[in-house]
Amino acid sequence: MHQDYIKPDNWSIIEEGFDRDRVESSESLFSIGNGAMGQRANFEEKYSGHTFQGSYIGGVYYPDKTKVGWWKNGYPEYFAKVLNAPNWIGIDVEINGESLDLNSVRDVRNFRRELNMKEGWYNRSFSATLQNGLEVSVNVLRFLSMDLDEAGAIKFDIIPVNGNAQITFRPYVDAGVQNMDANWEEKFWEPISVASDANSAFVTARTFKTHFTATTFMQNAVFVDGNLQQMVPSDIQKSGDKIQFTYTVDVTKGQSASIEKIGGYTSSMNHSDTVTAAAEVVKSANAKGFNGLLSDQKNAWAKIWEMSDITIDGDVKAQQGIRFNIFQLNQTYSGKDSRLNIGPKGFTGEKYGGSTYWDTEAYCIPFYMATKDQQVARNLLTYRYNQLDKAIENAAKLGFNNGAALYPMVTMNGEECHNEWEITFEEIHRNGAIAFAIFNYVRYTGDYSYVPEKGLEVLIGIARFWHQRATWSTARNQYVILGVTGPNEYENNVNNNFYTNYLAKWCIDYCVEQLEKVKDEFASDHNRILSKVNLDEVEIAKWKQVADKMYFPFSEEHNVYLQQDGFLDKELIKVHDLDKSQRPINQKWSWDRILRSPYIKQADTLQGFYFFEDHFSTEELERHFDFYEPFTVHESSLSPCVHSIQAAVLGKMDMAYTFYLRTSRLDLDDYNKEVKEGCHITSMAGTWMSIVEGFGGMRVKDGQLHFTPRIPGEWDGYSFKINFRGQILKVSVAKNQTSFALESGDNSEQITVFMNGNAVTVEPDGVVVI
Amino acid sequence: MHQDYIKPDNWSIIEEGFDRDRVESSESLFSIGNGAMGQRANFEEKYSGHTFQGSYIGGVYYPDKTKVGWWKNGYPEYFAKVLNAPNWIGIDVEINGESLDLNSVRDVRNFRRELNMKEGWYNRSFSATLQNGLEVSVNVLRFLSMDLDEAGAIKFDIIPVNGNAQITFRPYVDAGVQNMDANWEEKFWEPISVASDANSAFVTARTFKTHFTATTFMQNAVFVDGNLQQMVPSDIQKSGDKIQFTYTVDVTKGQSASIEKIGGYTSSMNHSDTVTAAAEVVKSANAKGFNGLLSDQKNAWAKIWEMSDITIDGDVKAQQGIRFNIFQLNQTYSGKDSRLNIGPKGFTGEKYGGSTYWDTEAYCIPFYMATKDQQVARNLLTYRYNQLDKAIENAAKLGFNNGAALYPMVTMNGEECHNEWEITFEEIHRNGAIAFAIFNYVRYTGDYSYVPEKGLEVLIGIARFWHQRATWSTARNQYVILGVTGPNEYENNVNNNFYTNYLAKWCIDYCVEQLEKVKDEFASDHNRILSKVNLDEVEIAKWKQVADKMYFPFSEEHNVYLQQDGFLDKELIKVHDLDKSQRPINQKWSWDRILRSPYIKQADTLQGFYFFEDHFSTEELERHFDFYEPFTVHESSLSPCVHSIQAAVLGKMDMAYTFYLRTSRLDLDDYNKEVKEGCHITSMAGTWMSIVEGFGGMRVKDGQLHFTPRIPGEWDGYSFKINFRGQILKVSVAKNQTSFALESGDNSEQITVFMNGNAVTVEPDGVVVI
User: Catalytic residues (chains A, B) (predicted)?
Assistant: First the structure.
């Protein structure tokens, strides 16, 4: 059974009641972030129960020495991990000499957490009876500023309910933190300096090996009954990597004692002198004050929702689910900085090292393209462009040459980090997703300039890789691609994975097309690039041979492309006929059994049909869907969205809705019993796609928007907005009508879209109801 | 270039001259053992240069916690490793107050090591000039007693050449040792007690987790000019895990100072009170004295050589090579104890953990069958019989049931230890080798009693495994075996590896045959076994279906069985056409490149033709040899012997000789540049097979010996002896004649053998020359 303690609410994630066993799960679910940093919902005060502490700074990572049982040539030396960063939220609290600790107080009542997604803050409140008999009422509000993105703020209020109290706040900054996931239990941070100035403190530490410097700071203000106390710490405890202030106030029964703590990080990614920079941030935050920062926060989130909200009528759990997904995506990546990317767990945990996967290109880019300015998606593409040299180095390590590029499976700085041969060396389809994202970006935004400026070089490196990676089969008289792992990681080292072969051919064809187009339309770029990468017609002709003579496994009997050679040799027992006690197979079966089974972890052949929908007829899609869906176990969070979209296309709305539900509340309801490790951030973009591309049927064809709206029987209506080439279109779908509304803005032109193939023209500020 | 510092000699391994860079290699090559224990040729005195310390006690192991990058369901918790055991050989030496250390003396001359294989001892001698100007001449003789197999002996002589000297011997026993290869750098030994009595000392330690107790002991006697000094230690240093005695004598120029040290281990494998047992061993050794022990040693080795020697005339390097192999096999496994087995590195290093691999059944059993009493091979079979329950547990962990047995890839106590999914879960052909060894044992020895007593249960467990592991392919209308790794580990997770499928079918067929035979001839055993394992005719009929409808990949075009499905899709570039800079591919290529290449690490399809030679015609063998040999890189030490035997069968004597040379001096000439890690013990049995089965052409058919002698052009002659069912036959092959000599013994019957198909009868003590 999955969990169901989160209260249904349209705009907030709410937990009521204190349960020690839920603390770590809630620490994930109530995580907050602002694109530049993020943190799990750890308590500010001491907590002696089970907790998973986590604060993260975007882009600051540590190369953790690889741990393997048996080394294979080509393995990377390290796995780059986003670090657990120094703790700035900590505030130890003593009340009448007793430490406030929810694990050891006599009693906790009215415990409540709320993550207000509309306004971007997290609040925690409770009443507790201490061992000394005193009852206190506590409220803590916290947020990470979207505007001043190096700062966060906490307001911690305590009211003694049944007596007077001496309350001691001991706010601290601590760089003596470690990762839960450290291969060799090494320390990742080296302390540099600890300094303080009146109510501020600055702890500077440097990561070993990568030498990122970060100053973690705090600025404290203490209040009694809302009145600022003009006080400095009565005591300051300093060690090499920690500083802690002491403030003591006396309050009478019913009076509040409060501390406002501003904190955050300035790092060497953005500053040469991080201490001075931190003092500047403190100054800016002080100028706004807590309330000013909070007010800005609400405005910032209002703007985000204005553009990216999806409404669902008549299904509060579905509404809460989709907003949670959109909220998390916005917390994780703001698109401001092309050095950053989207880790599978965002800022909510350590798993997957916070590194970049092909998830970004395959699942996240559509979301950011449609809900942000196109510069955001362009930054994500540029991230890969900037890592092209590293991708060429990665390929060289595996024996490829002449500028062939293999983008890494997992990376922070462009170097491959993963160390399972069947993934690192063989899950090479990722390379195709990088190329597809360029195509997808141009198709959606119409911004072709990216191709001559940056994209074409990436496409050339990728085409070169596929040309070299394919080998000639004399027996087949065709090119084959041997020894790969497709998106379905429940098959390893297979030959001729359809998805991989198809993508490889497409990458070459697309690159050759763009070479022609750039030659015709951007001649000077063409010359610059060809001379830079030393490419000539002879080489291009060789690529074309591979693309033209690529082999695709096909079953005449079933009239479908086969996931890989030999797929039909398997015992083709459908998931439906598998005993439930055997599920999930990744927990119940040994790896060899999984591999020889027909079960599909996530869309593989169907992922190809998703990317290249317009290459196939609906009949072909249906045949492949009907063939593969019954063998798909969806044991990856990235799987159901593709199936949901395709089920919608095929009019199988019940299936589409089931798949949708499975993704949208995956974390809130903890279907996989692992949310305490963090949330599935990248798959959240797939949930968005399920609605917009699945139910809404949004596609871009020949530079124009097409929709085929459908609505699940369980809903009264839904709406979403998209930014299409600078125009903001709101699409609202009800049981019996669809309406299109065009927001006016900088762009005062009308827009023509297609609904079920029929043109619909919408004027600025106009609404068309159909 | 390979090394060539070992002096050619018919009976000894000799090194001359001191070279710091060779110390670790020589420590491997000059290793000594007696089946129960063994040790690398570490210096007794202090050595501050690079050295790899190693002493091992057969069967005493530690379960080292598994280290992997990414856990897969079914991985074992630990890897069992033979431990580096406490050091008893250590004798620190001080001469006129200066420590004797070959790394820091002023000068070393006349350094010489000799491993006398004929007599079973190791001698080291040198002259050194100390920093204080004194010249000394040193001679150290050491051996591990084959008779008193818990004891070894050292005689350490020093003569000051150019002055008088005060010489201090500090013999010690030290249990504070660690493994070079320890996954988590844990300590493996827990000290228990340290005791001494006059000139004896006893250090008792226990392994963590496995709780083997071992007492390591020493007994010392000091001599001046050969005269025993009635003295006890002038000082005794004790710590928790070490004890060291001090003896000081004064000698004049030209006089010798000597210490005789008896030492060794008594372990809880054989004794409940290891300290008392150690005192008994000391007593027994004292009774013999150093010279008595040495004299016994020479006799023991004379007996071994009497039975197992191979002579080669006209090629001293080949002679030295084959004797080194036979010597090492006898040092490693004496066959006395069915709890022991043959680790790939024997007692010469830590690699492969000293654990048991399928090498034993596939390569070692023929050697021990032919050169020892049949009880030795029976003990090796019994080792697996005793681990049948664990093999059933191993299979259950992978989802098999009903008593299906999967023998481990690597083991000490029957539990699987290895942790690479492509090996642990998929290199399942090992199971077939266990069954084949039973067949091979019965074929050679004629001792069928093993089958009803023990073997049949093993065969049933294995047949059950194959029945469950094969799956039905509707597409082929045959049974297939998906997702395996064959003997050629340069292919992983392939479908329908010919060798595996063939062996699987054979295992079932053979088991069913033996069930019939035991039913007919050993009815009570039959009833006992069927009821014990709960087997009935219905189940057997299901096995038969699998065997009868097994699929074998075959190429009509090439008229050969294919190594696996899809082999012909590869780029079939022959090894000969591969640039030399690319070799060895396991050092030059990343794993994916190796996997998609056609290159074969060790005989795979050809291994099947070796096991089942009589199932195929010579033409078929030749076709397969000619097809696969050109793709074989022989990057396993177990590969060339099979190719050598088959080349000999096919009359390709140049190839046969080349392959032979490559195996027989693999370690002496350090072809793989890794001998410092230890010697390749199990492949040494393959070298023996190359001569006896390859050049000699020995086969057993219908209970009789057949020979097809051939002689490499480089040799004048060779001879080998075999024990065939209690009769000792010597086969001598010269350029133009072959002679058979039958030794008389307990058995006074004549023997009829076949040479090139013609019967030859030899009388006891008779010789037949052909």
Answer: 489
Rounded to the nearest 10 degrees, how much is the dihedral formed by the CA atoms of B504, B506, B512, B513? -170
* Location of structure tokens 């603390």: A23
Which residue, among B543, B568, B542, has the nearest Cα to B553 in the 3D structure? B568
CA B320/CA B10 separation, integer angstroms: 5
Same domain, B285 and B329: no
Residue-averaged pLDDT of chain A: 94
Verify whether residue A489 is a known catalytic residue. yes
Q: 3-state class of A223 per DSSP?
A: strand
Which DSSP string corresponds to A364-427? IHHHHHHHS-HHHHHHHHHHHHHTHHHHHHHHHHTT--TT-----SSBSSSS-----HHHHTT-
Residues B96 and B199 in one domain: yes
B-contacting residues in A 4-23 (Cβ below 8 Å) = none
Whether residue B482 lies within 8 A of chain A, CB to CB, comes out as: yes
Is there a domain that residue A731 lies in? no
Instruction: Find the CATH number of the domain harbouring B761.
Output: 2.60.420.10
Q: Is B198 left (phi over 0), alpha (psi -120 to 50) or beta?
A: left
Measured between CA atoms, how close is B630 to chain A, in angstroms?
A: 17
B303 touches chain A (CB under 8 A): no
Quote ipTM for the complex.
Answer: 0.91
Domain for residue A449, yes or no?
no
Q: What's the domain count of chain B?
A: 2
pLDDT digits (tens, 9 = 90+) for A693-743: 999 999 999 999 999 999 999 999 999 999 999 899 999 999 999 999 998
Q: What is the pLDDT of residue B352?
A: 72
C-alpha of B627 from chain center: 31
Report A:706-725 residues touching B (Cβ under 8 A): none
B335 and B200 fall within a common domain: no
Give how far Cα A43 sits from Cα of A131, A132, B73, B627, Å: 19, 22, 35, 69
Range(s) of the domain holding residue A190 = 12-305
> Cβ(A644)–Cβ(A603) under 8 Å?
no
Question: What digits encode the pLDDT tens for the residues A488-534?
Answer: 999 999 999 999 999 999 999 999 999 999 999 999 999 999 999 99
Q: What are phi and psi of B551, to 5 degrees?
A: -90, 140
Q: What are phi and psi of A494, to 5 degrees?
A: -95, 165
Alpha-carbon gap, residue B759 to B770, rounded angstroms: 11
Shared domain for B263 and B341, answered yes or no, is: no
Q: Which residue, of B257, B285, B302, is where some domain finishes?
A: B302
Tens of pLDDT, residues B665-697:
999 998 878 899 999 998 899 999 999 999 999
Q: Which of residues 109-168 of A touch B (CB under 8 A)?
A: none
Residue type, B722: I
d(CA A120, CA A331): 9
**Are B218 and B323 in the same domain?**
no
* Backbone angle region of B98, left / alpha / beta, with phi > 0 → left and psi within -120 to 50 → alpha: beta
Write out the two tokens for B520.
């007919």
- The dihedral region occupied by A72, where left means phi > 0, alpha psi between -120 and 50, and beta the remainder, is beta
Instruction: Based on the fold, state whether residues B293 and B354 are members of the same structural domain.
Output: no
Bridge-based pairing state of the strands B751-755 and B704-707: parallel
Per the CB < 8 A criterion, the answer to whether A646 and A609 are in contact is yes
Answer yes or no: is B40 within a domain: yes
How is residue A649 written in tokens?
Answer: 């296309």
Residue B562 lies in a domain: no
Q: Which residues of B touch A582 (CB under 8 A)?
A: none
Closest residue, chain A, to B468 (C-alpha): A593
Same domain, residue pair B325 and B222:
no
The CATH number of the domain where A142 resides is what?
2.70.98.40
What is the SS3 assignment for A741? strand
Nearest by Cα to B711 from B395, B312, B192: B312
Amino acid at A251: V
